[in-house]
Fold:
Amino acid sequence: MTREQKYYKGSLDGKAPLTHDPLKDVRARYDAIVIGSGLGGLTAANILARCGHKVAVLEQHYNYGGLATWFKRRGGHIFDVSLHGFPAGMKKTCRRYWNEAIAARIERLDSIRFDNPQFRLETIFTRDDFTRLLVEHFRIERARVETFYSELARMDFFSDSGETAGELFERHFPGRNDVHRLLMEPITYANGSTLSDPAISYGIVFSNFMSSGVYTFGGGTDWLIGEMKKELARSGVELFNRVEVEGILVENGQTRGVVANGREIACETVISNASLKSTVERLVGESHFSSAFAAGVKAVRLNNSSTQVYMGLAEGESIPFLTDLLFTSTRERFDSPSLCDLHGESRTFSFYYPKTRPGSTRTTIVSSMNAHWRDWAGMDEASYLANKARLEADTVTALERHVPGIRAKLTHIEAATPRTFEFYTQSPQGASFGTKFEGLRYSMELSKEVQGLYHAGSVGIIMSGWLGAANYGVITASKADGFLRSLEKVRS
Ligand SMILES: Cc1cc2nc3c(=O)[nH]c(=O)nc-3n(C[C@H](O)[C@H](O)[C@H](O)COP(=O)(O)OP(=O)(O)OC[C@H]3O[C@@H](n4cnc5c(N)ncnc54)[C@H](O)[C@@H]3O)c2cc1C
Structure:
């Protein structure tokens, strides 16, 4: 029996039976209801409440944070799920839209390593350091590197030339598969994008990282979400967990509330942090959209999913500092599709030394791979368990190449698959990073179709990851605030 089945054992719909009413303190009406407590949803909720609106967040899971989450296991292990690295911009976003205490905990990673048959190197992942590597290690002329960076700097969302990331690399560094690997592989892990995705979605995200490296939260995800909950309480946001929104109510082309845990709650505006496709197709229903819009959303492609292996060292065990983030592969050459292979050869390791949680003495290591839902979805239970076991075994073997003797120090090993991600977040097909680029347009235009309806979840590659999701929450909150103010004006 899988852990998911154990957790939810004993109820008809797969979830643990509720022993209390999670909505017992809910009001009959809010200005804004936010569906989901991922970083996009929480950020939007905090801003709207600070603007003076009455806001509720309804989260189907018992924990808040969405994919920005953690879990504990017997033996004192705490595992972070998606805290591997984000761009420096997160500091500004947290300072402005959360608080100084959160912003102050954002720290740069000391080291990032690559280890594959084409190159072994260490970097701090900044423009200066990448330029050094491209010139000294890869023997590319400095002028060529500068031209590449200048072109990236000119890219923005409104200037899609139709070029793909692969074409962009080939134009600047023809025939240099090793250089393409250096530039693309980390971004593929960060947001699922591939050589076939638009160059601008690559350029925007890569430039964000290059501004000053890769950052993390000192204190771990549990500290961060705990702090965000306190800030939300100060702003006046009401949080409800274990509340699943089953539908968004629309009347005469306008949102008027939601149905959650079987109960109607009225509101003026709904901000959905759930997947774009679920929001349109399941929560609202296609009949409330123009046929062109509904067809457009249907055609939007989901991004890939992930697998992870969480490894915890025994109490009292440690490892010397190797790096914070290790991009590793045994594949001779780089190509995007193979990063999603079932039992592939490429993975990242995130090392969480005791410094991750000051005061702790514990070390954990989390391996992540990109993955396809289709590879895992159809497995019967026996095959699913066998494949999870193989994933765990392969991962420890791969880790031993970099950290000899690690196997003997591990007291907890556990795998998550696309099925796990779908189960805990309700993202269709366990999509880790929302939709492909084309989804952004539909997400941004929701309120043109249904007044008062907004989306603030990972979408379009650019608006995903910790920074992208949080910033999208800011953009969406500002639009929803404008809408609520326009209603007040009409009424006064
Ligand atoms: C393995 C992995 C590693 C990652 N690593 C990184 C990384 O290193 N750096 C980085 O920047 N990003 C990383 N990401 C991506 C990043 O975690 C996400 O892009 C980001 O956290 C998504 O935020 P979001 O606001 O879109 O919401 P999500 O995190 O997707 O949360 C959506 C929330 O909505 C809730 N919900 C959905 N439907 C309903 C409903 N009907 N009713 C109530 N609640 C509902 C879900 O339960 C969930 O809590 C990683 C993702 C994965 C899977």
